[in-house]
Each structure stands twice: as C-alpha cells, then as structure tokens.
Structure to design on (228 residues):
C-alpha cells in the first residue's frame, strides 16, 4: 500500500481528498500546519507528498525545500496560487507537479497515479547518465561537468536528464513540457521553457552563446547533440 502525505489546512478539502485517495487504496497521513508536518514526516516513510502553498504557519514551498535536502519523494503542489511565477518557483525548488484550485478530482487522481508510476520506473532504471563530459548521478541527484560538480535547480536538473535520456532526438516544446511537468501550457509555456533552456546552457555549455550540447532545431524544438 502506497503511503501519501497531505499538507493542507482546508478541512473540507482534506475530507474529500482523504476519502478519494483511500478509496483508491492509498494510506493517507494529514498535516494541517508546517509544524505538524515536520513532526509527522519524521515518523514514517512516504511515497508521495501533496503540499498546499499557503498555510497558517508558513509555506508549502519552504516545507518542500526541507524535504528536498534529504528526500527524492515525488511532490505535488495543490494550491490556489495560480501565477506563472508561483508555478515556476514550485517546480524549480523540487516540485514534480503543480495543480491549481479549483480542480477536477479525476484529474488529480490521474496525476497522483502518474507520479507514482514515474517514481517506480525511476527507481528501477539506470543510476547514471553520461554524455559530452556531463555526468548525472541519478541516485544522488548530482551533476558533474568534466568531473567538477555543478549546481542546478530542480527544473534544470529534470530538463538535463530528459535530454540525456533522448540523445540526438528532436524534442518539441510540447513534448518536453508534457514529459517533465504534466502541466497546462497556460502556466509553463514555451517562453518559460526558453528561459529554462537558456539558464541550463549557461551552466553546461563551454560557450553558452554558441551551444554545442543543447542545440535548437529551428521550427521543431531542441535536441541533445552528441559531440564528436
């Protein structure tokens, strides 16, 4: 039985989500404040966390940052904060998905199932990706260029892993957005993706102005170019 952790202060929403998740066969632990979440998180091991952003004593963003120091558990934000900047921040600090209220319960459950499947596939997959002097240690979440560690945000890390998993293949912006975040383009759109690409290039390219690893294929998308 998968164990889910729900950090939410709206009692009516807690009741509805807990009922639906338990009906799906999940075990659910609920915290209504970040203080309560800190205590409950340490008592058990969980397979996925669903976090509200605005809480009585803090922010789900801050709790996410704490989790990411020690855990790779999938994290979904479930919040009324629907600004694009909020979504980008949530994904950048380590969130795997971001849903805004109000939402359809069926869509929420579908995304929960997808995150858990993705997590299971990841745990049984390869533990290291290597290409063009870039090495990604998947179990540690660390990235190295020519043996020297480089720091990436969670969004940049996911983007790099995606390119390394599909070398020399053209990926359209829509494919990238769908594979990484399962998000509506109303929130993470092509312009936001361009920002992620540019920031990642500044960290992994020898000359970001003339990228050789992540190349743009005009009118089609991007690809990880295997350097000869």
């Amino acid at each position: 039985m998968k164990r889910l952790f729900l950090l939410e202060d709206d009692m009516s929403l807690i009741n509805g989500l807990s009922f639906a998740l338990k009906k799906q066969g999940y075990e659910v632990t609920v915290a209504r404040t970040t203080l309560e979440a800190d205590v409950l998180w340490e008592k058990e091991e969980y397979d996925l966390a669903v976090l509200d952003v605005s809480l009585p004593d803090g922010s789900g963003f801050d709790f996410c940052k704490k989790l990411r120091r020690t855990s790779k558990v999938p994290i979904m934000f479930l919040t009324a904060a629907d600004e694009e900047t909020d979504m980008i921040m949530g994904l950048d600090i380590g969130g795997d998905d971001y849903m805004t209220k109000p939402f359809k319960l069926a869509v929420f459950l579908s995304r929960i199932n997808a995150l858990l499947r993705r997590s299971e596939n990841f745990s049984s997959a390869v533990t290291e990706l290597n290409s063009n002097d870039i090495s990604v240690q998947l179990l540690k979440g660390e990235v190295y260029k020519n043996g020297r560690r480089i720091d990436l945000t969670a969004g940049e890390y996911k983007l790099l892993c995606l390119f390394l998993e599909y070398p020399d293949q053209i990926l359209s912006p829509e494919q990238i957005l769908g594979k990484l975040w399962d998000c509506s383009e109303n929130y993470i759109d092509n312009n936001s993706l361009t920002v992620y690409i540019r920031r990642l290039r500044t960290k992994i390219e020898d000359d970001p102005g003339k990228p050789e690893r992540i190349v743009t294929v005009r009118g089609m998308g991007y690809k990880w170019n295997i350097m000869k």
